[in-house]
Amino acid sequence: MATATIADTPYAPTHPEIRDAVRALCLKFDGAYWRTLDRERGYPTAFVKALTEAGWLSILIPEEYGGAGLGISAASAVLEEIHRAGCNAAACHAQMYIMGTVLRHGSKEQKQRYLPKIASGEMRLQAFGVTEPSSGTDTLSLRTTAVKKNNSTYIVNGQKVWTSRAEHSDLMLLLARTTPKEQQGQAKRTEGLSVFLVDMRETLNKGLTIRPIRTMMNHNSTEVFFDNMEVPAENLIGVEGQGFRYILSGMNAERVLIASECIGDGRWFIEKAVNYAKERKLFGRPIGQNQGVQYPIARAYTQIEAADLMVRKAATLFEAGINAGADANMAKMLASEAAWAAAEMCVQTHGGFGFAEEYDIERKFREARLYTVAPISTNMVLNFVAEHVLGLPRSY
Ligand SMILES: Cc1cc2nc3c(=O)[nH]c(=O)nc-3n(C[C@H](O)[C@H](O)[C@H](O)COP(=O)(O)OP(=O)(O)OC[C@H]3O[C@@H](n4cnc5c(N)ncnc54)[C@H](O)[C@@H]3O)c2cc1C
User: Fold this and answer.
1) What is the pLDDT of residues 159-173, one digit of tens each?
2) 375 C-alpha to center of ligand 1: Å?
3) Which one, out of 7, 60, 134, 137, has a CA that is 20 to 30 A from the CA of 175?
4) Probe ligand 1: pick from 162, 378, 396, max atoms within 8 Å of CB?
C-alpha cells in the first residue's frame, strides 16, 4: 500500500509553482536592497516593477480584463512568499485587492476603463482613503464630504490620514460622506457614505495635497487634504450612499492577504532564529541546545502553524463565496499576533545582534509590528467576534 504524504491532504502548501516563482524573484531583492530603502524611506520601484511584469499583482483580476483570474489563496501564496523571503509587499499589495471594489460594484464601463490598465500595471490603484484623523476606526463618523454640484461633478472637502502609497498611485479609492450625518436616521446608520475613484494625476495640486508621514518603518504613508477637489460624477462607484457596504465587502480580502503576509513574516523570523541558534556557540555548545532558547522558537512555530490553518480556512470560505467576515478577522488577528510573537522571539534569540541593522531583524521587527493595529486593530476584531459571532451586547 502506498504511503500517503502531506501532498495528498488539504494541508499541503497551496500553489507550489507560484511559491517557487515568487521565491526566485525575491532572491534578486536582498537585505541590502531593503536596508537602503529603509534608511532613505525610498519606494521599492524595481521590486514593484518586477512583480508587475511577472503578473503577480494582477493575479486576482479576471482573465477577461487581462489578469490571471485566480482566487485569494493564490494571492495569499504570493504575499506569504514575498514576506517569507524577507521582502515587504506593503508598497504594492493594495494593487492586488483595491480593484475588487471596482470589480464587484463598478459599472461595465468603469471595469472596462480601469481594470485592463490596472492589470497591465499601466495604472496604479493602490491608495485607499478611508481613515481620518478625527474618526479613526469609527468609520461611520468620517467627515470628508462629497457634494454634488451639478449632474456631472462632486466637490470634495476634508482630510484623510494614513493614506498609504498615495504618492505612488494614479488612482485613489475614496470614501466620503454624500449625505450629512444629521440627515441620516438611526436605521440608516451605515448609509450616506459613497465611494469614488479619484484620478490623482488630474487632481494633484488642484484641490488635492499629499504630505508624507514619517513612520517607524518604511511604509510610504501620507496624509491627504481635499480643498474643493472636483471629482467627475462618472467616478462614483455603484449607488450613492452605499459606499460603506462596498468598502466592507473588500475588507475580507484585505484581511486574508495581510494575514498571509504575517504568516510569511513569522516563518522568516523562525528560520532566522533556528539557523542562528544552531550556529552561535557559547559555553562550548550551540545556544539552541538550551531549552530556554529552543522553547520560544518552538512556541512561535506552533503559533504560526495554527494561525496558518485559520488563514487557509478564511481563504477557502472566501473563494467558495461564503461570508468570510468572522474568519478573515480571526485569521488576521491570529496571524498578526503570531508574527509579532515570532519577531520578539527572533530578537531575543539573536541577543545584541538582533538590534544590528545588517541582520535585517530589527527592520522586519518594526515592519511586523504594524499588523496588530492596521488595517484593523485587535480590539476591533474582538468586538466583531463578541458581537456578531457570539451574540454578546455591542460594547461601544
Ligand atoms: C502605517 C499605516 C498604514 C495605514 N494605511 C492605511 C491606508 O492605506 N488607508 C486607510 O484608510 N487607513 C490606513 N491606516 C489606518 C489604520 O487602518 C488605522 O490606524 C487603524 O484602523 C486604527 O485606527 P486609528 O489609528 O484611528 O486608531 P483609533 O481608532 O483611534 O483606535 C485607537 C485604539 O483604541 C482602540 N479602540 C478604539 N475603539 C475601541 C472600542 N470601541 N473598543 C475597544 N478598543 C477600541 C483601538 O483598538 C486602538 O488600539 C494605516 C495605518 C498605519 C499606521
Assistant:
1) 999 999 999 999 999
2) 7
3) 60
4) 162
**249-389 CATH, one of 1.20.140.10, 3.30.70.100, 2.130.10.10, 1.20.1250.20:** 1.20.140.10
| Topology annotation, domain 6-120 | Butyryl-Coa Dehydrogenase, subunit A; domain 1 (1.10.540)
Measured from the CB, is residue 162 less than 6 Å from ligand 1?
A: yes
The upper half-sphere exposure of residue 16, i.e. CA atoms within 13 Å in the direction of its Cβ, equals 5
What single letter denotes the amino acid at residue 329? N
Q: For residue 146, what pLDDT is reported?
A: 98
Q: Tell me the C-alpha distance between 40 and 35, whole Å.
A: 9
CATH of domain 125-244: 2.40.110.10
pLDDT digits (tens, 9 = 90+) for 129-140: 999 999 999 999
Nearest residue by C-alpha to atom 21 in ligand 1: 376
Query: In 51-150, where do the E strands start and end?
Result: 125-129, 145-150
* Residue of 77, 64, 35 whose CA lies nearest to 311: 77
